Amino acid sequence: MRALVISGGGSKGAFAGGVAQYLIENKKLDYDLFIGTSTGSLLVSHLALKKVNEIKEIYTSVTQSDIFNVCPFNIKRKSGIETISINHFNVLRNLLSGSKTFGESHNLKKLIKSHVTEQGFNALKALKTDVVVTVSNLSLNQVEYKSIKDFDYEDFIDWVWISCNYTPFMSLAKKDGCEYADGGLGSMVPIEEAIRRGATVVDAVILQTEVTQYNRMPSLNAFSLLTNMFSFMLDRIEFQNIRIGKFVANNQDAIINFYYTPTVLTTNSLVFNKDKMTLWWQSGFDFAKHKNQETSPVEPEKTE
Fold this sequence. Notes:
The active site is at residues 38, 182. The chain is of the alpha/beta class. The protein has helices at residues 13-26, 39-48, 52-59, 64-67, 88-96, 106-115, 118-126, 153-163, 191-196, 222-252, 274-294; strands at 2-6, 33-37, 73-78, 81-86, 130-137, 142-147, 173-175, 178-182, 201-206, 255-260. Helix 1 (13-26) packs parallel to helix 2 and helix 6 (106-115) crosses helix 8. The chain is globular and about 50 Å long.
């Protein structure tokens, strides 16, 4: 049984899309399980249906306004470097309206629903392939994995959206009496879950460099400090997920093929830049091609 695991990483998801395109279209790999966290959850439905060009078009044309209906920050570009600062008007207006977060991401839910149609959902559900997204249940203090096999269309759209909600910058969702947020707050790289579900070979796309690098700009204000702190915590979660995944794989005789980003793609993954994301997609494709040409390991026979 083979699984494709895609980590969280905001706009860096474009790189993962490029990797997946090579593995699916060029290497002709068939996956029994697609499991994603945050930005990874946006990719897995289309990848499972092999609608690679469609999801590529979405990822390489998305803008801030496609994600946020209330954007909590301003983006400034100077000498090719992007920095963020708080949008005081939007944040204050949002808090005064009773929101618990600095920004709102309901536009993202509309975007998901417009591209993951009910027809596409039914086609996905009819496949043997399983599609799973990761969410964080803040009320019960636990990570949950939501399979397309267990929900109807509206519920699954909710779970995909919730998996991407990087609170407190994006919406806090309430569902089934619990508060939910970005799956990355609990499991950035759900390798362990893929193996628990029976995967013997896991292709894991990690939207981070393998070797720690200086990949964050100095904090210029309270808002950038907050994003840097959250990024630091998510990096630590990711590191632990990978270490646990390797341990579980060793004990279950599973194989993990890692696809890390070869360079630091961005210092702020909440900034969506069309040109850069187009380059990252191609970079992911080229990297996967190069990696598979370098090493051609003998893989175990696929089991049902």
